[in-house]
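Sequence only, no structure available. Ideas?
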Amino acid sequence: MKKALLLVVALFFTVFEADALTVDVTNLSVKNYSTPVVNSFAWAVAQVNGAGAGTHVIRIMVAGTFNEPEYVPYSITNSNVTIDGTQAPGWACGVPTFFWNGPGYAPVAYSGNNITIKGMAITGIAMNASGAGFKLFGCWIGLNNTGTASSGSTPGSAAINLTGGTATIGYSSSACGRNIISSSGVTNCMTISGNGNTINGNYFNTGINGNTLINSVTGSTIVVQGSNNRIDSNVVLGSAGVGLFGAIAVNGASNVLNINYNYIGVNKGGTLSNGVAGYGNAGFGIYTSGSVTGASFMTGNVISNNKQSGISMEGTVNGLTINNNIVGLPGTGIHATTIYGNGDSGIRASGTSFNITALSINNNTVCNSGFVNSATNAATNSGIIFNGSAGTAINSVSVTNNYTGVDRSFNLAGNKFPGIYFFMCGTMGGSNAANVLVQNNVVGDNGQFAATPSNGIATYSSSYFTIDNNYVGIGPGGQNIGNVSNGIEISSSTNFIITNNNIQNNKGLRTSAVAEACGGIITFQSSLGTIQNNNVSNNLNAGGGFVTNHGIVVQQGGQILIGGTGASQPNIINSNGT
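Reply:
I predicted one. Tokens follow.
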């Protein structure tokens, strides 16, 4: 009886303009692609594809599963088509009741412009949108019928591929607006190569609660290139690719890119998700390997529990602002046993030939970097690091107003090696120290590995920079947040300015004897510098017999001006260990 009812033919046409067409799907039956059952989903697609110009709607008026029968998918070739699953019996915001199940080896092509899909569940089908203005709202992609686990069906390629531009995937973080997009057995979950796309409020590779990871891809979860793309307010998990992969990977050229207010490596509550070999993502949180240019922003993201760095930049950066992010959750209490940080560095620029013309790293909190894996390398386990090489070019960089190693309440959550580190960057700033500025940062509790570069702020083989008006080992309210070894260490570097810093409470701790002394400020094999108007006090001995802790040290270098006769030139050097 029920099967007979399903086969009832009910055809509804509503004309809104000359060629506008509304088609109702009331039948789940399937014959084949060439002769679909009237009022089935396959039949409805054929009707709107052949309807000519106009505004067309496929209304889903039946609950259940439509199993696509053949290799040839039901692609949408006409423009201005809406597939509306919100009319299906039992539908509620975020809970579709019509399930479109594909064979898993052929994509559905949306070649028409202004196609909208809403309120459906789709699995085993890759969605290739080459038309402009594609929209996807309130859908489940790759989930089972309860939304709590993977469907177990692979789409054959990335679940969603956007090439036409101006797509909108999700319009808010509400249940009606967001999509749950999950993919397994493929390289990426979503690829974006068009311009003007907005990805907003979605959960990637979680169940409907946004907390539990249920799927992972072998590469990057989201891959983006193009101009004027926005990835905002999503939960992004499930990147299992290690190496040149990320939860969000910027490959190729991106101009005016916005990646804002996402949870990356953590769930929607900002807590741990350990679904990929113990991590939220096995690669980087955000990874750029091509070029990021124009007025681009990475703002307000929570990026933690990624096995590699939170944000990693390679290639060209010109016009990027990284601000107001939490990169590495601080955990609870002092040196919490559960470390929430990223496995390598918090924010890093690295590679054999990265080129930074204009970059601002401002007002971020960067904590607990380098603890969730076993590496012991300052070049990869620091808070904010520029890890250069022979091909590196850094012209204009500002690192300002960040908290590294402590959170905004001054809870200790130090990075494994320096809080801020310039490593082998060569001649920076176009040979102008004012163009590379480290200013107004709070830097504490860094260098937890207690090796040579376990400092608050450090440079090695990097020249032409200014370190000004930072709190190093002490908070603005006098909080004791001492770094493990030195406050500031300048090694094998030249042409630097260190002014107006408050450097206190740094511990001079080392796990073994090394050549470099410890101090509030130490220069080692460095020259042509200026050190003026700093408060270098209360840096006490805690070195276990290996070293003594000084105020200011110049070791194996020279031609450094310390203090002066002007009103704002002398340093205060007081009550240090030695």
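The helical segments are 2-6, 41-49.
Hope that gets you unstuck.
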